[in-house]
Amino acid sequence: MCLFTFGLMWLLTALVFELVNAVQLLRPGFMAECPVFTYGRVAPAARQALLFGFAVQAGLGMMVWMMARMNRRALAHAGVITVGVLFWNVGLKIGFLGLLLGHSTGFPGLELPAYSAILLLVSYLLIAVPLLLDFHSRAQRDVYVSQYFLLAALIVFPGIYGTAQVLLILDPVPGAIQALVYGWYDRMFYTLWLTPVALAAALYFIPKLVDRPLHSHQIGVFGFWSLAVVGGWSGISLGAPFPAWLVSLSAVATVMLIIPAVCAYVNLCKTASGRLGLFRTDPVLRYLGVSLAAFGLVTLYDVLSVREGFAAITELTFVDAAWNMLVRYGFVGMSLFAAIHFIVPRLSQIGWLSDTLAKIHLFGTITALAVGIGGLAIGGILQGLIMSVPEAPFANATRFSHPFLYLNVVGIGLLIVAQLPLLLNFLGQLIICCSTCCLPDEVEVETTTTNTEAVGANA
Amino acid sequence: MNQGVIIAGGVILAAFLSLWGVVFNPMKQFGGQQPRSIETIGGYYPTKRPGMARQGREVYRANGCVECHTQQVRPANVSSDQERGWARRRSVFQDYLYETPVMLGDRRIGPDLANYGGRVLADDQTPRSGHVRNQLLYLYNPRIINPKSKMPAYPYLFEKRKISGQPSPNALKFDEWWAPEEGYEVVPKPEAEQLVAYLLSLRIEVPLAEAPFLPDDAEPTPVVGSTNVTPQASVPETEAADQSDVNP
């Protein structure tokens, strides 16, 4: 519960700072007098708040629940995990303030200063190691497909984060290799942390809610390994100043990201076949439906981005910003909201206080994302089209994309408003949960479960 | 065999393989690069940035300039960067030899800066001190030079203070609309001067074997105005301004 609580607080923080950023794009004088709120400091701070504050914490909260359920064993080291969570938030808060004070490392995705990064790394280990020990001593010896993805995320993060810190901060590699390091980290974080967490949610909750076992364990595992193998190689932009062989190899890997996407879609569609109507009525399935739709769009964009004509228009424009928003809020965010809506009532042992608030949150978020992402995408395409014409002054790219940035402001504003119903609902749950003294190791593990994923089940 | 061990081992191996391929392999290929002797310039390329410019890079990093500006001129097959006049060749590994952190950037809300110094200083009608003055004014408030600019202002890199005795030779010279109130002046802090030194040191004007210049018949028309070269402000070229030249 505390992971979800901190996660939602950081989500609100991130959104507020993103709104400041979005306004500054239109009104560059907004808060310009104060160095703490200059655009270049607020942007990375908002990004880290969203990724490390909300996505990682809510994702870990989901993992704690799911691992306990699938291990068929209560959480054994809740105290250590709680200490880890507290230190994670302390480290992130220190880093967040450090960014506003200008202590950014300058590396995209790794902006948090070293004094914060070390705290985060240690905190993560305090959370991940107990979960891995619990997995090791699980009662259920077979491994579900969702667990493959969750284990990958648990194991990979300290490795990629620690490696990036060593190669960039502790003993920096020379020259443009640094760009390869932070690009590699960024891509690994997306393909082997964010994507596995979001897919694990779909692969766990959908079979549960449609009351059927997962269609195919083998397809699920194949999808997992294909993601693990190609993920780290993908995503290098065509225009980057890197060796041509590497750019080409990365393009192939990026296209191959279709494989895990297709595996996930086939598996889930076959699982839910004949019960797709539930995606319109069940609140958790609605979130997951939106998440999977966003995943499809994200993968499609990735595949198209290896084409020169497409890259020439979209690279380095607001289209990239739209892609990021779709990934972070549409794909990963919606899956985490689904997890929160499923897990929290079971922790507090009472349903959501208001289903209406839950509906307002869902539809408000979808509307906000449509407006915000749409505005960025259209503005970005115009930007790219103008920049591709050498005779066109650069200022025109800014001028013509400018009106669509108003949509970005509206979208983020709506997103903030749309989270308020969730926060109200969650606050109600938190009060009930705290008042009934609900601790993780007191959660009962059902010995008879219905609608669970069956390992190795085939149609 | 324990499935958990297989999963963990497989994931770690996959991660390491990608690290080897994406980072260590190119490092083996390019990590040993050294500055090259270039005949056309009679010296080596690249050279380490002088002290002020190196400090300016830290100011650039601390203020997150990378959020809006890239430092990578892209190849002709995916961009018109070179035809547009941003540089005569694309960026390559050699250009970043002495850079840390390498701030390629991933968004162009403002123009690319890889050859910003090269573009600005190409105008040899204006002395360097005049270019420095323009850059300082632009940082103080970009709308002074370009009313339509969307770049944030950085007034906190400057100090507005009461004039005591004679005005400082470093004080910015404004048109009436932007001037501070009577008896006050705006002088750049060291961070502002360092940042300008860094910006003017950004040049990739040296042809390399792996990145030759565009052919002469594809020489781009220099683009001036409110695009990618800061237009000249009406800064009076006084003796005081020349004497207070900011050394890179």
Written description of the protein model:
The complex is a heterodimer of chains A (459) and B (248). Chain A is 75% helix and 0% strand. Chain A is built from 15 helices and no strands. In chain A, helix 2 (39-71) packs parallel to helix 4, helix 2 packs across helix 6 and helix 13 packs parallel to helix 15 (394-435). In chain B, the strands form two sheets. In chain B, strands 1-2 form a two-stranded antiparallel ribbon. A two-stranded antiparallel ribbon of chain B has the order 3-4. In chain B, helix 2 (51-62) crosses helix 6 (190-200) and helix 4 packs across helix 6. The longest helix of chain B is centred in the N-terminal third of the chain and has 28 residues, at 3-30. Chain B is globular, with a radius of gyration of 22 Å. Mean pLDDT of chain B is 83; it is low at 218-248.
Summarize the structure.
By secondary structure, chain A is mainly alpha-helical.
Quick one: how many beta strands of chain B? Answer: 4
Q: How is the quaternary structure best described?
A: heterodimer
Mass-distribution shape of chain A: globular
Strand content of chain B: 5-15%
Major beta-sheet overview of chain B: 2 strands, antiparallel
Helix tally of chain B equals 7
Radius of gyration of chain B (Å) = 22 Å
Secondary-structure element order of chain B, N to C: HEEHHHHEEHH
Major beta sheet summary of chain A? none
Rounded Rg of chain A: 22 Å
What structural class do helix, strand and pairing data of chain B support? mainly alpha
Which outline of chain B best applies? globular
Largest interface: A-B, 90 and 79 residues
Proportion in helices of chain A? over 70%
Number of helices of chain A: 15
Share of β-strand residues of chain A: under 5%
Parts with pLDDT < 50 across at least 5 consecutive residues of chain A:
442-459
**SSE topology string of chain A:** HHHHHHHHHHHHHHH
| Spatial ordering of strands, largest sheet of chain B | 1-2
